[in-house]
């Protein structure tokens, strides 16, 4: 499709510009999407502030960010067209981790570790634009009664589901979730559906409002481990958990925050034969320290959960069955022009924010 489009082009730390650029051209294996809703992810914030390198060859811009998005198909490449997969007008959600289906990792089902990954919004141009190219293998049709705004939660929910799957929750387990962000709130809802008994959400600093929101979506207990003036403050999290859990530590703990200290604490407040999932992306030089003897003799298990391999089909099932509710998680909807403002707000004043979406078109 020829023509121009508006796009937010990211150049370098704290430099993003709204520009008129050509609508991208598709190859035989691509589909062109007219972008509808894009969620702002924690990683978009990291890229914007230069805290993480983007996925281009140089680790730098220019690149259009945004990888949690839905849209409408406007043009279909030769291959998906011949296979009869998509047609203009289809409502779709993009899986931004687009694997090749031809390498050794893909053949093993480790699609997230594909040697030829294409990641719109991270390694190639993404959703903070009026149009975006996707490989046909990275697309899913949205169920009719799932809105574009709800659909834009598919990617983070797929990651949440993958993390919870690795947590191996047994019916009735006491589950600790660190971080009352949108990830923690999706995990809270889904963990209950997957059999969790009681759930505690743990926050820090300015988190009281978000902790209270977490309670509204299903958390049973909330604690603030940093803000001494908070009414949810505890200086001894393990003790507080024991008080509400028949004198036992947590059975399962997952850490959807990048805080290294939170992960160490998650191991500490987990009990016998607990599983702890390392979930949030750490900083480059983070090293975690855990007491070896208790880890060993309490027979704990630590696992990492990276991205969402083979989790999308089930995630779409979860969404279409309404097992996780998103509406209360959207605390702001901004036009494309205000993308930078929204990213800055999430960084500088996240106290009453959960998820902000960019609404690129109706
Ligand atoms: Zn994301
Ligand atoms: Zn591959």
Q: Can you summarize this structure?
A:
By secondary structure, this protein is of the alpha/beta class. The protein is built from 12 helices and 16 strands.
Describe it.
It is a single chain. 27% of the residues lie in helices and 26% in strands. With 362 residues, it is α/β, with parallel strands linked by helices. It has two domains: 4-153 and 326-359, Medium-chain alcohol dehydrogenases, catalytic domain (Quinone Oxidoreductase, Chain A, domain 1), CATH 3.90.180; 160-304, NAD(P)-binding Rossmann-like Domain (Rossmann fold, 3-Layer(aba) Sandwich). It contains twelve helices and 16 strands. The strands form three sheets. Strands 3, 5, 6, 7, 8, 15 and 16 form a seven-stranded mixed sheet that branches. The site of one zinc ion has 6 residues, from helix 5. One zinc ion (ZN) is lined by residues 41, 43, 67-68, 155-156.
Q: What proportion of the residues is helical, as a percent range?
A: 25-40%
Q: What's the CATH C level of the largest domain?
A: Alpha Beta
- For this structure, the CATH topology of the largest domain is Quinone Oxidoreductase, Chain A, domain 1
CATH architecture of the largest domain: Alpha-Beta Complex
Number of domains: 2
The run of helices and strands is EEEHEEHEHEEHHEHEHEHEHEHEHEHE
């Amino acid at each position: 499709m020829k023509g121009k489009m508006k796009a937010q082009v990211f150049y370098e730390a704290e430099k993003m510009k709204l520009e008129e650029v050509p609508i991208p051209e598709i190859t035989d294996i691509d589909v062109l999407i007219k972008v509808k809703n894009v969620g702002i992810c924690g990683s978009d914030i990291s890229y914007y502030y230069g805290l993480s390198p983007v996925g281009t060859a140089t680790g730098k811009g220019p690149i259009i960010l945004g990888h949690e998005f839905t849209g409408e198909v406007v043009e279909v490449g030769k291959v998906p067209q011949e296979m009869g997969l998509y047609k203009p007008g289809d409502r779709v959600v993009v899986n931004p981790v687009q694997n090749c289906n031809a390498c050794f990792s893909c053949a093993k089902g480790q699609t997230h570790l594909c040697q030829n990954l294409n990641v719109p919004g991270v390694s190639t141009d993404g959703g903070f634009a009026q149009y975006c190219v996707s490989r046909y293998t990275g697309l899913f049709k949205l169920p009719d009664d799932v809105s574009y705004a709800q659909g834009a939660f598919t990617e983070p929910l797929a990651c949440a589901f993958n993390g919870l799957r690795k947590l191996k929750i047994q019916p009735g387990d006491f589950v600790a979730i660190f971080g009352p962000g949108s990830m923690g709130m999706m995990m809270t809802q889904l963990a209950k559906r997957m059999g969790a008994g009681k759930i505690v959400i743990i926050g820090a600093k300015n988190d009281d409002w978000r902790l209270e929101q977490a309670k509204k979506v299903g958390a049973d207990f909330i604690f603030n481990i940093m803000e001494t003036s908070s009414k949810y403050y505890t200086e001894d999290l393990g003790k507080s958990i024991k008080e509400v859990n028949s004198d036992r530590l947590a059975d399962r703990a997952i850490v959807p925050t990048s805080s290294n200290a939170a992960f160490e604490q998650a191991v500490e407040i987990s009990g016998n034969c607990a599983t702890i999932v390392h979930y949030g992306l750490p900083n480059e030089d983070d090293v975690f320290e855990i007491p070896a003897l208790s880890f060993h003799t309490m027979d704990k298990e630590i696992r990492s959960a990276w991205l969402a391999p083979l989790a999308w089909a089930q995630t779409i099932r979860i969404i279409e069955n309404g097992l996780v509710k998103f509406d209360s998680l959207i605390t702001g909807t901004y036009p494309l022009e205000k993308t930078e403002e929204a990213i800055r707000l999430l960084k500088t004043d996240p106290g009453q924010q959960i998820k902000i979406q960019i609404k690129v078109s109706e």
